[in-house]
Design goal:
Largest sheet: 5 strands, parallel
Radius of gyration: 20 Å
Oligomer: single chain
Order of helices and strands: EHEHEHEHEHEEEEEHEEEEEH
Number of helices: 7
Strand order of the largest sheet: 2-1-3-4-5
């Protein structure tokens, strides 16, 4: 059984006590330290020889949990905790393990630990598989970049399709295209974004991805043809 070292950051001592109590029930986790001061925690993370997992509140004075993730240079896995679900939208592009809404039940905490352990086994210690979260009800659904077949714009929402499943994100296609461009996603229609590497066929009017025909808009056709020409034999 692998062992992991964790720290907790929250400006409320009671919130730390809850997480520490839950974590104590997992024998393969060691709580190294807890912090009510985010600045002090940031300094600790820069100097600590090994931290495998960080639990951090989002809304904190001086440095927020979101800023801590972005400032982390060694790609430590984070589990975010918050009383405010709207922060998930702001954190759309953060590759964190999970989001926990307070008050945190042990059942929900256990799911987050399982996600962390699964990722720890599947990835190296310094890199998490690219992913993001979409909020549905009171849950945050993790979407792996490599699983996305296409994204369809539906007025104020974006329909993210992964195989036979999909979820809806309250985001514009423009903002999603900007976030996913580094993963070789491209807008090919006013209503569609696709992962270029999953295109199996193009006939001038539409592309084929996993047997799904997706239309190509006139204003996007030349850009797509240029990409395909650069990747032909």
């Amino acid at each position: 059984m692998s062992t992991y070292k964790a720290i907790i950051i929250d400006d409320e001592a009671l919130a730390i006590d809850v997480i520490a109590h839950h974590l104590n029930r997992f024998v393969n986790f060691e709580l190294l330290h807890s912090f009510t001061d985010a600045v002090e925690a940031f300094q600790y993370l820069k100097q600590a020889p090994r931290v495998d997992l960080v639990f951090t509140d989002i809304a904190m004075p001086e440095i927020s949990g979101i800023e801590l993730v972005r400032l982390s240079q060694n790609k430590i896995p984070f589990i975010m905790t918050t009383s405010f679900s709207e922060y998930a939208v702001e954190s759309f592009d953060l590759e964190v393990v999970d989001y926990l809404l307070k008050p945190i039940s042990f059942e929900r905490f256990s799911k987050a630990i399982q996600r962390f352990e699964t990722q720890a086994m599947q990835t190296s210690t310094d890199h998490l598989e690219p992913s993001f979260f979409v909020k549905e009800g009171d849950e945050f659904i993790k979407i792996r970049i490599k699983d996305i077949d296409y994204i369809e714009g539906l007025k104020d929402y974006a329909k993210i399709v992964t195989g036979n499943n999909y979820c809806l994100a309250l985001k514009t296609l423009k903002s999603i295209a900007e976030t996913l461009s580094k993963y070789h996603f491209k807008r090919i229609h006013k209503s569609y974004i696709v992962p270029l590497e999953k295109i199996s066929q193009y006939n001038g009017k539409c592309v084929l991805i996993n047997n799904k025909e997706i239309p190509v808009g006139n204003s996007y056709r030349e850009s797509l043809k240029s990409y395909l020409n650069n990747h032909k034999l």
